[in-house]
C-alpha cells in the first residue's frame, strides 16, 4: 500500500546524544519543537541540494556555450582547423559546421583572420627567429 506523500508519518531515529543536545538547543533558540527543528533542517538541506544541482546545471550549460563560441572563433581565425575537423564529422555535423562557418562570415572583423594569412603567418614567431631576422637586416 502506497502512502499519501502529504501524510505525516512517525519515524524512530537513533543518533548520538551530542547531536540530540544540539538539536534541542537549536529548537529552543528558534522556539520550535525538536521535531519541527529536525524537519526544518532536513527540508533546508534538500533545498540546498536542489539549488546546487540547478547551479551546476547552469554552469555546465554556460561552459558548453562558451566552449562552442571559442571553437567557432578558432575556426574563423584558422580555417584549416575547420577543414581538418570536417573529416572527422558525420554528414549532419558537417552540415551544421558549414552553417556556423557561414554565420561567421558575417562576424565582426576582429573575429576574422587577416586576408591572405595562413596559420603559420598568424601564429607568433619564436623570439630566436625574430633575432635572426633583425641580425640579417
Map the helices and strands.
Layout (H helix, E strand, L loop, with lengths): L16 H13 L4 H44 L1 H8 L4 H14 L14 H4 L4 H10 L1
Helix pairs in contact: 1-2, 2-3
Overall 3D shape: elongated
Secondary-structure element string: HHHHHH
Summarize the amount of helix as a percent range. 55-70%
Report the portion of residues in β strands: under 5%
Task: Specify the structural class.
Answer: mainly alpha
Total helical segments: 6
Gyration radius (Cα, Å) is 31 Å
Number of strands: 0
First-last Cα distance: 92 Å
Low-confidence stretches are 116-126
- What multimeric state do the chains show? single chain
Main sheet record = none
Kindly report the average pLDDT value.
77
Structure description:
With 137 residues, the chain is mainly alpha-helical. It has a domain of 89 residues. The protein contains six helices and no strands. Helix 1 crosses helix 2 and helix 2 packs across helix 3. It starts with 16 loop residues before the first helix and ends with a helix.
A few lines on this structure:
It contains six helices and no strands.
Task: Output the keywords.
single chain; mainly alpha; 6 helices; elongated
